[in-house]
Amino acid sequence: MPAGGRQQAGAGPARPALRAALDWLRLHDLRHACATFLLVSGASPRTVMKVLGHSQIGLTMNTYAHVLPDIERAAVDEAAKHLFG
Predict the structure, then answer these.
(1) What is the pLDDT along the chain (85 residues), one digit of tens a residue?
(2) pTM of this prediction?
(3) What's the half-sphere exposure (Cβ side, CA atoms, 13 Å) at 82?
(4) What is the mean pLDDT of the chain?
(5) C-alpha span between 37 and 67 (Å, rounded)
(6) pLDDT at 27 (0 to 100)
(7) Which positions ≥6 away from 39 have C-beta within 8 Å?
């Protein structure tokens, strides 16, 4: 075991089983899910751009445009609730 008493990631007998259980999941899928969850949770597109490391906001907006109608609808509903009760 390394100094500090922590086992390194990927070490030990559970690693092959873990890999087999998650063989359908790609790192890119987790990245996409993270961005989608951030947007739906109210993070600004600029924040998502920075988290993902995109150099231009257009790339982020074009990639995640499918999430925006739900966000826009929720914003309109919230505004209507405040305006009309």
Answers:
(1) 455 555 555 555 556 666 667 777 788 888 989 999 999 888 999 999 999 999 999 999 899 888 888 888 888 998 999 999 8
(2) 0.60
(3) 5
(4) 81
(5) 9
(6) 81
(7) 45, 48, 64, 67, 68, 71
Structure tokens that stand for 19 in this block: 């890999």
Two tokens, residue 11: 């070490």
* Contact (Cβ atoms closer than 8 angstroms) between residue 20 and residue 26: no
- Three state DSSP letters for the chain: CCCCCCCCCCCCCHHHHHHHHCCCCCHHHHHHHHHHHHHHCCCCHHHHHHHHCCCCHHHHHHHCHHHHHHHHHHHHHHHHHHHHC
